[in-house]
Amino acid sequence: MTDDTDDQALIERPAYPTALGASTPTTITLLGTDLARDVMGEVGFGELAFWLATQRSPTPGETRVFEAVLAALADHGFTPTAIVTRLTYLSAPDSVQGALAAGLLGGGSRFLGVTEDCGRFLHEVLSGVDGPLPTDDEGWDALALETVRAQRTARRFVPGLGHHVHKDGDPRTPRLLRIAAEEDLLGPHLSLFAAIGRVHPQALGRKLPLNGAGVCGAALADLGLPLELLRGFALLARTAGLIGQLAEELRHPVASEVFLSVDLNNRSVAPDPYLPDPLTPPRHRRRSSWLNWPRSSRPLTTPSTTAPAPPPGRTARRTPTSGWPRSSASARH
């Protein structure tokens, strides 16, 4: 192969640029720094996680708020994510990664996912404001009241509002608001969230707590982190908590008791067959052909091919559904 051919091969070789980790036989770089010299022993894990997501080094205040969020979301007792992690480890003790993955996959709209849901919701409200954002509590309260009323009218929940345990107030919420204020990082998302906590009883007629997952989503949004990754940060925090759950399971196991409690106390009941919602014919009872029905509601076969034949000497009775078999007419009730 000639030198020209070698040069051409180098030119055509694909390139995959990244500002994250890269290595040579003697060095490892991460975010433009030497990993061994500049990161290890110099940068905390929370700071590094922020840095990896934004590709910029956070300020000390941003690091404090971010790590407070991670601490708030790390563990919250025997939640479904913790229980399934322990049970999966009971079933497959050779698969620690499987147990952790099982718990993380359970992070959704009811547990952990509220962090992202709340951050996105608040950002959507703020993006829809015409003109400048409020600058005082009165302005934020007015925007919050309008927001809660709109959600109530649309019969939608307000993300971050309510908690099944901390009904009189989630202790994580005021603490995170205070930390953000101390670091001068109480931005518009947290301001709107706090205002929702003040005014929602006027719209809902009852007082609900602002939960910790919601305030964490507001804080992460105020830090300028990607909204698409807010649930990822909640899962990052919960990973540490699930490792703790497994570590305790090794020393003080409870998963077997949970399993046996269900297994030894189940009871046999009669089958409860699933019945799909029947197709409901028009209520005007017109004696018209089934072809007048919407195409999506027509039976797969014509009534003439499915209706039972009348006994000899009798005339077939027409049902109110104009030709449908009697069994089909009664199934819809």
Helix-strand layout with pairing:
Elements (H helix, E strand, L loop, with lengths): L2 H10 L9 E2 L4 E3 L2 E2 H5 L5 H10 L5 H14 L6 H12 L4 H10 L8 H14 L9 H17 L18 H11 L5 H17 L7 H11 L7 H22 L3 H9 L39 H4 L19 H6 L2
Antiparallel strand pairs: 1-2, 2-3
Helix pairs in contact: 4-9, 4-11, 4-12, 5-6, 5-12, 5-13, 6-12, 7-10, 7-11, 8-10, 9-11, 10-11
Give the SSE order as H and E letters. Answer: HEEEHHHHHHHHHHHHHH
Number of strands: 3
Q: Assembly type of the shown chains?
A: single chain
Number of helices: 15
- Computed over alpha carbons, the radius of gyration is 30 Å
Mean pLDDT: 84
Report low-confidence residues grouped into runs of 5 or more.
285-293, 296-308, 314-333
- CA distance, first residue to last residue: 82 Å
| Net shape | globular
- Largest sheet: number of strands, sense, barrel closure: 3 strands, antiparallel
| Beta-strand residue percentage | under 5%
Task: Classify the secondary structure makeup into a structural class.
Answer: mainly alpha
Strand order of the largest sheet: 1-2-3
Percent helix among the residues?
40-55%
Key features of this structure:
333 residues; mainly alpha; three-stranded antiparallel beta sheet; 15 helices; 3 strands; disordered C terminus
Q: Quick summary of this structure?
A:
With 333 residues, the chain is mainly α. 52% of the residues lie in helices and 2% in strands. Strands 1-2-3 form a 3-stranded antiparallel beta sheet.
Describe the structure.
With 333 residues, the protein is mostly helical. Helices cover 52% and strands 2% of the residues. The protein has 15 helices and 3 strands. The protein has helices at residues 3-12, 35-39, 45-54, 60-73, 80-91, 96-105, 114-127, 137-153, 172-182, 188-204, 212-222, 230-251, 255-263, 303-306, 326-331; strands at residues 22-23, 28-30, 33-34. Strands 1-2-3 form a 3-stranded antiparallel sheet. Strand 2 (28-30) and strand 3 (33-34) form a beta hairpin. Mean pLDDT is 84; it is low at 285-293, 296-308 and 314-333.
